[in-house]
Amino acid sequence: MNNDFQAALKALGKQAKQEAREREDAEAKARKQAAEEVDFAKEMGGVVPLKNSNRYAPPRDKSPIKPRKTDGASLAAEDYFYVGDGGFDEPPTSFSKNGQGKNDIRRLQSGHWPVVADVDLHGYTQEQAQEVLNEFIEFTKKRGVCGEIVHGSGLGSSGYKPVLKTLVRRWLMAHPDVLAYVEPHKGNDGAVRILLKRNKAWDAE
Fold first, then answer.
1. pTM metric for this prediction
2. For all residues of the chain together, what is the average pLDDT?
3. Are 117 and 87 a contacting pair, CB within 8 Å?
4. Which intervals hold domain Smr (predicted)?
5. How far apart are CA 76 and CA 98, in angstroms?
6. Potential cystine with 190: which of 34, 65, 101, 153 (Cβ 3.0-4.6 Å)?
């Protein structure tokens, strides 16, 4: 009987020790977890929110511009704007036709308007380039008023005559929706940044 009692005491002692170890492990785990938790409010206490400038900058869409097939969702072929042959004197490095002149050119050069789309015309024929430009103007007008066109300097053209560069700038000077253009990168005449008429749909909003 005494042996049974001793055995029972021994078993109870082991059980008590096991429970004590489990409690210690649980407490240690809880302390470790609490130490690892980040006080978010404390960590962010020194962060100052950015002031809202209230200036809207549309996201720049870098998807390539290509002529669309003539279908119901595209511009009709007769709606494309073209300039004919002739006028091969090299156009000016900057141009404005809305009476603002120097103001528009200065703002274009300084990045006053965000460039919302750009297009590279390398590899296109003159006719294809004009088709792409028509699509590019419509694409840009839906997103803002400023876009950038890369036409190249024409150094690789026959006789070193800048055929595509001349065509693009003549086209821009004649297009009714183009208000101005400038060469945005000093020392690089292979691109122009353009300013378009403001979309009337924006004014209605």
1. 0.60
2. 76
3. no
4. 119-197
5. 28
6. 153
